[in-house]
Amino acid sequence: MTSADLTPQTPAPAAGPEALDAILRDNFAPWIQRLGLRVEEAGERRTVLRLPWSDELAREGGGLSGQAMMAAADTATALAVCAARGGFVPMTTVQQSTTFQRPVSGRDVLVDVRITKLGRTLAFAEITLTAEGATEPAAQATTVYALLG
Over the chain (149 residues), what is each successive 10-residue block's mean pLDDT? Predict the structure, then answer.
């Protein structure tokens, strides 16, 4: 163990919405970009993205597909970790668990990520997905990420 290991680390300043939009544009797959996610808020431990409603993301019956919501939660968490670290960080999803509570139809979804633990090698988050204007969540998720750099 070196003296650097014992020195308290000052967290990097949180990356803002514009920086996270650039990280999304420059580092995520084209199909993720086609979801149209936009960063609404970004902070050290909390980030909010908007998943715009699209008929292309609806399943039979007109509800927003669970796959789209899970991809939005996963992407939002990765961006929240980047915000907390002050910029892009290579990482990979280790675990994601999602519970769907009510359908969403014809409305944008706000994806609210709260980082519950940010370590050197792992990050943990809780995500709430709420249809715009609703008071109750449409889905909730938890994630664990391995930080690779």
Answer: 42 78 95 96 95 95 96 98 94 97 97 97 98 98 95
Q: Which residue has the tokens 């808020």?
A: 41
Q: Hey, CA dihedral for 81, 86, 88, 90, is it positive or negative?
A: negative
The DSSP bridge partners found for residue 51 are: 109
Tell me how many helices (H) and strands (E) the chain has.
4, 6
* Cα of 89 vs its chain's centroid, Å: 14
Beta bridge partners of 58: 64
CB atoms within 10 A of CB 120: 7
pTM attached to this predicted model? 0.89
Contact between 86 and 14 under an 8 Å Cβ cutoff? The reply is yes
Strand locations in 17-84 (E): 38-42, 46-51
- In 3D space, the residue among 46, 44, 67 whose CA is nearest the CA of residue 128 turns out to be 46
